[in-house]
Amino acid sequence: GLTRMLHLNDAPGAAGGDAAEAPIWKVLVLDAFCRDVVSTVLRVNDLRDNGITVHMQLEAQRSQIPNVPAIYFVAPTADNIKHIASDLARDLYELYYVNFSSSLPRTLLEDFAVQTTASGTAHQIAQVHDRYLDFLCPEENMFSLHLEGAFESIHSPSMTDTAMTALVDKIVGGLFSVVLTLKAIPTISAPRGNAAEMVATRLDAKLREHILSSRHNLFTEGAEDVVAQSRRPVLVLLDRDFDLGTMLVHSWTYQGLIHDLFDIRLNQVALTQTDDAGRRVPKSYDISANDTFWEGNAGQPFPEVAIAIEEASVAFKREADEITRMGGVGSLDEVGSLDMGASTKQLQRAITSLPELTARKANIDMHMNIATALLDLIKERQLDVLFQMEEQLGRQTKASILAAIADPEKKHAQDKLRLFALFVLSNDGLRQSDIDECEAALQAAGCDIAPLRYIRKLRSLARAGAGGALSAAVGGSGGAGAGGGSGGGSGDLLGKFSSIGTRFTGGASLGSILSGVRNLLPSRKQLPVTCMAEAAMGGRPAGGGLRATVGGVGVGGGGGTAAAAQALEGFVHFDPKQARRGNLAGTSAPAHRGALGSDGSAQEAIVFVVGGGNYAEYQNLMEFAQRSTLPRRIVYGATDIVNPAGFLAQLARLDATALG
């Protein structure tokens, strides 16, 4: 992976290496895409720990740094090859370790050889590697291909066959890298008739070609084949059209709220804060891969996160007070200046732990500031009220929706548009006159209803049969009520949330905000993507009327998983490791039977959405895997991770294109 690349393709601490031996200092040169790949998992300190003194952009003007090796990590493009060859000709570095994010085509390799031979610099190239790392990994079990606007591109009437083929090839290349990183050849399932089927067909062909024709099988078959066979994942490809609602819901989890209100880009949160002078200033925070608070609380309901921040703050203050008491000083800043030799052993240990305590304080302060900024917006936009309405969408009426649209306290026009869009998606029986009345109210409230027009167009196409079977089966236009998850409706955290403000360390301003926020606990229900994953993995439908939801859209009968299992029978299925035996597509016994355990269920799955994904689906899948009685691992991915505002913008542009 990346760490091996940063150590010149040697494992850290591997042979030749005494642990105490000084590291080889290197420079790292990145193109824009690979910079994003690296920045989602490594920060500047991490790079320095791996011997990187400086990292630079490939396209930037760079000066010569003699006697230093350079690691290049770039996409395999003709322009990048030209840049590297130019650097060689200018003799910028001593040795060149060239790493491509995906497979370098033979034509480009030959072109690279011609250019370096012409300049007489080929001997300076120490290594050339295909890394197969052309995806971003914002969370441990989550990836993005960083293909922005994929939903818009796929649905655009101006999309040519050539452009569509190029997009599908990019998706296939990214998925190939993902499964190669996992070292397991998956079976593949996808709905018929849309982009997901095109991706499935091409990925199956690419995997087959690699298995049959590669001299070196990168999936490490052979001796480990038995192990690999037993843990083969099921790859479920889905088109975004099957569930539009989840892209628009108001989240109530910490990570979901941050993505909705501030966005999370490359694991960096950008927001505005009020400084000491009362001015609104931009501020950004890095979410580190080793942030244990984030790891434990990102997917938790926001009220529980607020409690956790308070508890972490109180625990830190208790430890800090104890250390300052032992040292006889007034603050932690003064502890560092104490004489270690004259201190007691207990205090010496405390002084030694000072860097860790300082890092903890910075982490607590960061989450405190993010939570405070979230609470400001929750109160300003009445997001707690909107979340509760969407949790109980089946109980809403035209009158309650119109009242919310007209409410001057709900100041954000896009929030009202999202609420009504979810109401439309959850009600097949809405009269056109009711829709027109609500749309007029939205326009009066300052809403651009272009996204809504395009959603209605997609629904009409689904009803006409274009993808309608899957959409109806798992909630795309279900007729049953909303909010009927197995966890019941919204709950109260026994008043704990409302009292946090009075006890928050240094959080006096937080209390006034908290007093106006409802104490809500989300109901536990499976989203359509999770129902499809459970069905594909061979799981038994959960009891208790478990429902698939599209922002609260329920499916009656045997539950969302049962409906998803029925829809799955109409999918195309591929097993790249099996010889072709006619047409496996659409059979009731999918091709992944060879990957199942003795109980008939798969233990691993990759769920990928063509057209964009979000943190709500990721968190829902992780919760399903955690509460499963069987040990299961699910990896979630999408062409890009999109927040509601970004998705609405794509819908609006598509509507404008359709009208034009």
From TrEMBL:
Q: Which InterPro entries match?
A: Sec-1-like_dom1, Sec-1-like_dom3a, Sec1-like, Sec1-like_dom2, Sec1-like_sf
What is one process in the GO biological process aspect for this record? vesicle-mediated transport
Domain of life where this protein originates: Eukaryota
Q: One Pfam family this chain carries? A: Sec1
Q: What family name appears in the similarity comment? A: Belongs to the STXBP/unc-18/SEC1 family.
The name under which this protein is listed is Vesicle trafficking between the ER and Golgi
The gene that this protein is the product of is: SLY1
